[in-house]
Design a protein that fits this description.
transferase, 9 strands, five-stranded parallel β-sheet, Ac_transferase_dom_sf, Acyl_Trfase/lysoPLipase, Malonyl CoA-acyl carrier protein transacylase, 2 domains, Malonyl-Coenzyme A Acyl Carrier Protein, domain 2, Acyl_transferase_dom, Alpha-Beta Plaits, alpha/beta
Length: about 325
């Protein structure tokens, strides 16, 4: 299928694909699919050759799986393996693609904006730079539940102004669910304030405080690598994390990927955008079902499917083909 045909096929559908970010990894991911589809291990072999270490071994053994520099290329590769299976089985072209944090790179590979090899090298570096930007144990993230976005921003500003360190809203995931990131003491202080105000707060088991100003040094170095990477405009529209918009040129795309390291992920706005554009079905193309579960709560999304096992993939394929009128 030519690039033009790909674009036309995508625009005709009411489906969006969502690619998950860090936290969705699990030991043994895609093992059952690998038994049935040779393309899974072939995709992992292609990506492993690019980065110089065995991504399939990490995914199956768990060795180093939760180290950011390894987590990111493994998750991206798993998502692209699933995307390729979807296409191999005759799955429809989505109208839009979107990825949560790291998942934005998976979306860009799926959309033909960059090669898998270049992308895994980029996110491997991204992980290293993020890890090096903040000394181990000094940064933290937490999910704040039960408040609107403005209240969480207010709590972060209150703590940041108190001299306990910098803390910011990092991911606007859904109504009443905002993830914060920053200095550990500051994050702990916001957790305490949230509970005092009758909200809920859950500290997240992460080693890096993503999407906050502590990542600016990493972003400056990462921008240099982005400039050296071949990038084209996506053939299927990719909604950007930082502004819930679609890039109109490659320079804007690079800028948004750099800013993504230290700015908030606008996931709520991203999901509102796809609903406003008439999307009714979503599929989560990667391990897990976090994004699919969040999408199920949205008023205009009729169905949301994870794809990370043979059974789930077949169910999604048949249901979406039927919903889109491709099969009776």
């Amino acid at each position: 299928m030519s690039a033009k045909q790909l674009e036309q096929a995508a625009l005709a559908t009411k489906t969006a694909f969502l690619f998950p970010g860090q936290g969705s990894q699990k030991i043994g991911m895609l093992a059952d699919l690998a038994e049935q589809f040779s393309g899974v291990k072939a995709t992992f072999a292609e990506a492993s050759e690019a980065v110089g270490f065995d991504l399939w071994h990490i995914a199956q053994s768990g060795e180093g799986l939760n180290q950011t520099e390894f987590t990111q290329p493994v998750l991206l590769t798993a998502s692209i393996a699933l995307w390729r299976i979807w296409l191999e089985l005759g799955g429809i072209m989505p109208k839009y693609l979107a990825g949560h944090s790291l998942g934005e790179y998976s979306a860009l590979v799926a959309a033909g904006a960059m090669s898998l090899g270049d992308a895994v090298k980029l996110v491997n570096l991204r992980g290293k730079l993020m890890q090096d930007a903040v000394p181990q144990g000094t940064g933290a993230m937490a999910a704040i539940l039960g408040f609107d976005d403005e209240k969480v921003i207010e709590l972060c500003a209150q703590v940041s102004a108190s001299g306990q360190g910098s803390v910011e809203a990092a991911n606007f995931n859904a109504q009443g669910q905002v993830v914060i990131a920053g200095a550990k003491d500051a994050v702990d202080a916001v957790i305490a304030l949230a509970k005092e105000n009758s909200g809920k707060a859950i500290a997240l088991p992460v080693s890096v405080p993503s999407h906050c100003s502590l990542m600016k040094p990493a972003a400056e170095q990462f921008a240099e690598a982005l400039e050296q990477t071949a990038i084209e405009l996506p053939r299927i529209p990719v909604i950007q994390n930082v502004n819930a918009e679609i890039a109109t040129d490659v320079a804007q795309l690079r800028q948004a990927l750099t800013a993504q390291l230290y700015q908030s992920v606008q996931w709520s706005k991203t999901m509102q955008f796809i609903q406003d554009q008439g999307v009714q079905y979503v599929a989560e193309c990667g391990p897990g079902n976090v994004l699919a579960n969040m999408a199920k709560r949205l008023p205009n999304i009729e169905k949301a499917f994870p794809l990370d096992s043979t059974g789930r993939l077949e169910d999604a394929l048949n249901a979406i083909l039927m919903a889109e009128g491709k099969i009776a």
